[in-house]
Amino acid sequence: MADNSQQGGAVRSSHKHKKPIHCFDLPDSAFIPHQNHLLQNLLNRNFPDISTLSEQQQIALARLVPMLLCGEQSAMFVFHREAARLANKGEEECYKALMQIEADEFVHEQVLQKLQSLLPQPDDVDRIRKRSRLFYARIDRQSTSLASHFWQISQLDASVCLILSALNKAIHQHPISEIFSAIMRDEARHVAIARQHAQFLASDQIQCTAPSIHNQLVELLKTETASLHALDIDANALFQRITKLSITKPFITQLSTTKTYDREISP
Length: 267
What we know:
The protein contains 9 helices and 4 strands; from the N terminus they run E-H-H-H-E-H-H-H-E-H-H-H-E. By secondary structure, the chain is mostly helical. The chain has one domain: Ferritin (Up-down Bundle), CATH 1.20.1260. Strands 1-2 form a two-stranded antiparallel ribbon. A two-stranded antiparallel sheet has the order 3-4. Helix 1 runs parallel beside helix 3 and helix 4 packs antiparallel against helix 7. The chain is globular. The two termini are 36 Å apart.
C-alpha cells in the first residue's frame, strides 16, 4: 500500500454528513450482553470531552479510529458465528469464553463509534474504511482452516494491543486514554483465548501464516504514518514491534486432549 504521509487533501476534515463506520454486517446483539463493563458505564454516563485535544490530535484519531472499528466489527462477526456453531455441541467452556469476547467486542464497537462521532470526519473516510475492511476480510480468505483462522486472530489481537498501547501513551494525560487502556486490557485476554481456541480446534499441526498478517497490518498502518506522527508516536518503532511478533514457532499443536479453557475472562 502506498504511504500517504504527505496528507495533503486527505488531512482536510468535515463535521458534515457524519455517518457511523460500517465495515461488516453485524449481529443485532451479543448472546449475553455486558451489564457492567467499564466502557459501558462510560457510554451511559460522562463520555470524555474531546475538545481539550488539539486539532492535530483530533484529525489524527479520526483517521486511526476507523481502522480499529473495522477490526472490532470483524471480531464481533467471527466470535458470534463461532459461538453459534458451538451452542449445541456440549462445549460449554468454549462457548462461554467466546460469548464473553463477543460481548466485549460489542462494547468496544459502541464506544469507538461514539468517539468517532465526536471527531472531525476525514473527507476520505470511505477510502480508510475500504482498505481496512479489505485487510480484515483477507484474514478469513487466507486461513487454511478454522483453527488457523483463530490462530491468526490471536496474532492480530496481540498486534492491536501494541497499537492501543501506543495510542494510550500518546494521550495518557487526557481522559480519552481510558478508552484505549480498557480495550487493550480486554484484547490482551482475547489473545490467550483465541490462541487456546485454535489449539482446541486443532486435530493436527496447524501451519502458521501469522508473519503475513503482521506484515500486512504494518502496510495498512503505513498509510497513516503521518497520523501516528501527529500523535507523537514513533511509527517505525511501532512497525518494528509488530513485525517482531511474527518471530514465532512456525507450527502450533493441540496442547492436550482434555480441551480445557482458561476461564479468567471477566472484565
